[in-house]
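Human: I'm a chemist; would you kindly supply sequence and structure tokens for a protein?

Assistant:
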Amino acid sequence: MTRQIVSVVGGKAAEDANATTYDSVNPARTAETVARVQLAGDAAFAWACSVAAAAQREWARVPAPVRGRVIASIGRLVEANAEALARLVTEEIGKPYAEALGEVREIVDTCDFFLGEGRRMYGQTVPSEMPDKNLFTFRVPVGVAAVITAGNFPVAVPSWYLVPALLCGNAVVWKPAEYASASAHALYRLFAAAGLPDGVLNVVFADGASTYAGLDLALAEGTVQKVGFTGSTAVGREIGQLCGRYLQSPCLELGGKNPMVVMPDADLDLAVEGALFSGFGTAGQRCTSLGTVLVHRSVHDEFVGRYARAVREATVGDPAGDVLYGPMLDHRFAERYEDYLGWIQPHHTVVTGPTGRITGENPRGGFDGEGGLYYHPVVVDGVRSRDRLFLEETFGPIVGVTSFGSLDEAIELANRPGYGLSSSIYTTDPKAAFRFRAGIGAGMVSVNNSTSGAEAHLPFGGNGKSGNGSRQSGIWVLDQFTRWQAMNWDYSGRLQKAQMDVAEIIPDLEFRL
């Protein structure tokens, strides 16, 4: 039976007889509808923000250690329901089950990290320049966070926002991707079961245009104090401009064109394994997916030969099985990926064989699937630094290969596209690893590891076209969901004016031995 899903605001289903509907289909078997979703309009989104604003005031009064216990309960609930949630993710977006299970584990890890942060919401006691006066700093919640997430990581990435935002005493209005609505609704139910008061977490299903318009209304009404967005660079720019009009700084986690540098001394088997996972895991539909492999000329031919062979031998197909990757997330991504394939030029060499959708007329050996949005993995050699395939994000199973002659050249090439999310270098030379780290503009650097992969206690985020420098995960995300408040307490019984009524000790600066 197809699931019927509606927004939940203030703890109640927000039915709307005039709402449009969206069918979330199984991309591995597109004839199957996973959920029929009622999409809210802009006024409904703004209304949800006002409901959250009313609930937030009471939630902020709950002591932070108690809020931490709620986060602990969320972690245990997700852990107990891990298999069911992972199966739903696989069904709805076609992510291989092993990857989906790892994604659910990321939620548990995030909760395990933050459950103790409620007892470490530290401020500072600061010495004053005047007697009988104390200075303090406090972390205070921002208020209401409007969180808009993509569907390639439909439960893990939202948890990076929801868990710290709620822990810090904020209320949240969450807008998931339409094509991952069933997974999002399931995650909401797990959060709600942990005992969150009504209105503290709200989930609104809407399309992009209604979300943007509703966010504009809420910002104008003053019911949103923080915006978190994970998605494309193009939409991130629009969100950033909108927030700027209201003097807000959003948390933007955007696209990537992530480079992997393979040095002459690299372990090529390890580099191939890393390039295979980061280039084609989740069918290349991660913000941290490998964009271009930069290979030293001395090992270029050997690396490309091994990489092409590994890709050709990998199993693509039914995400319920043991496969490298399954289908594209949704029809829109399949259509966009076909545009990216049009960027392949005559001076390029496709070293992996067929391109395009896997069909009976365009088959793939070892293919295990049918009736879905399955595409051939593609490795393109001979990519030049001015090519569109080199400069722009390609959200799908396609990886470019470019040669270099020196580490300085590799760093220059790695930075040229202007993204700055993730990066990787394969080398056995510590000097090369640290030179690469110092020169790369990415927010994240891996040495002898892939461009994909995050841990709950390490900052995640990018620069340039990949984001505005904000960071998720670990203690660093607390700066997104709290504001610093300064307090001074003067118990001298008189008005002491800073920088004016300060005791002066006069040195003898002419003194010499």
About this structure: The first strand starts at residue 3 and ends at 5. Residues 15 and 356 are 41 Å apart (CA to CA). The chain has a mean pLDDT of 96. The chain has 15 helices and 22 strands.
